[in-house]
Amino acid sequence: MSATQKIQGLFDRLGYVFGIQDYVLLFLRAWVAKIFYLSGRTKVSDGFLTPSDTTIFLFEEEYALPFLDPTLAAHMALNAETFLPLMLLFGLGSRVAALGLVGMALTIQTFVYPASFAEHATWVAALLPIIMLGAGKVSLDHPLRMKITST
CA-to-CA distance for 124 and 102, rounded, in angstroms? Predict the structure, then answer.
């Protein structure tokens, strides 16, 4: 066994003992949730879920998503950027929330800011472990899953 394999084995055991994976997943969830939630807050005028006139204008003129009414697209984006990050942060329906945010990132990459590939790819790369592994033990999903599997 090489020195590299021994070190890797040690890190694997430490990760299992201390639950490092769960905290890495929590960090990824919080990081991506912050990005999308703060973006959603820039779209609000009065209230919690009312898009501003500027947001509607941007969806009419700059973003111009195909096959979607700009007002509907603005409402959809605002709701997605409000609720999906909260679900992701608290670890409730994390895989669904992460898939939704990947869809948003791909839409933004394709139709809105195609020159920002590196930024959007980073978001998707951070969301993929959550889609594959779930939210981890530091989440609301975990006790719910334990309760469901114990019955």
Answer: 6
- pTM of the predicted model, to two decimals? 0.84
CA distance 10 to 18: 12
Q: How does pLDDT run across 49-81, given as a tens digit for each residue?
A: 999 999 999 999 999 888 899 999 999 999 999
Asked if 58 and 73 count as a contact pair (C-beta separation under 8 A), the reply is no
Place of tokens 């509907």: 72
Domain boundaries, the chain: 20-150
Tokens of residue 12, six digits: 């694997």
d(CA 60, CA 42): 17
Compute the distance between CA of residue 52 and CA of residue 75 in angstroms, rounded to an integer. 10
The tens digit of pLDDT for each residue in 79-119 reads 999 999 999 999 999 999 999 999 999 999 999 999 999 99
What are the structure tokens assigned to 134, written together?
A: 């779930």
